Amino acid sequence: DRTGTVIESSNGWRDLTPDDVRLAASRLVGRLDQMPPAFSAKKVGGRRAYAAARAGESVALDSVSVLTHRLSVTRVEGSEVQFEAEVSTGTYVRSLARDLGEDLGCHAYLSGLRRTSIGPFHVREATTVDELDGTRVPDVGWMSPAEALAWLPGHELSAPQVERVQVGLPIPDPFEGTGSRLPVALLEGDRLVAVARSEAGELRPEKVFPDR
User: Which of 73, 112, 143, 176 sits at 20 to 30 Å (Cα–Cα) from 132?
Assistant: First the structure.
């Protein structure tokens, strides 16, 4: 972590070419068993890993299976490398930077990170904080909750099911056996009633949205 204490350094990067860096990056594409960074929100013994790490304690984390769809090196200048990554949920970009340094035989850490997209949403379609100044509502084409979650599997509820879901009760899972692990958007027409997860043949509401 860039805010941590330096425990080791190297000038090995001076002997590397941009092609060396790109080749190493290509080896981090695909399915990986990734070790989360010590400064992460993972829980170890009921405690956040970053809390233990900041207290100077040793943190033992288990590796997790992640998927790197793309890791493109866009700039190599001195000891600094800039890259773009497209990764699965649960992937730590900080760990990608660390592992890239280890593969190259030097050391590396992530000095900056900018998320440019998630799911169907891209930063170019976002509204800036300055535009949301609290004195006016900008004309930015607000999405409804149902539109924002249109990328999830959706299920249209019957009237009795709406009543059950609104008080947090489960309904039969129409997606059972399809292998989908995504949450499900429960809908009443164009209104998002709840977001649910499949469990034991039922859709159990995790977040219910009141009808206003």
Answer: 112
